[in-house]
Amino acid sequence: MQRKPCYSFKDSVPKISFGKLTEINGKREMSVSIHVHHALMDGYHVGKFIEAFQELMNR
Known about the structure:
Elements: E1 15-18, E2 22-24, E3 27-29, E4 32-35, H1 43-58
Antiparallel strand pairs: 1-4, 2-3
């Protein structure tokens, strides 16, 4: 059985997957995927995490 990395089990544990960090013309980029259960976490909290993560990436 092949399993998907982010959502192979039916559970409520948040999953964050990061892609490869690349730099193009002095700009760093990284893909990020966040899967959360909407009954346990609001989009507000995901947004706050993204803002904090972006701030760290900008340093």
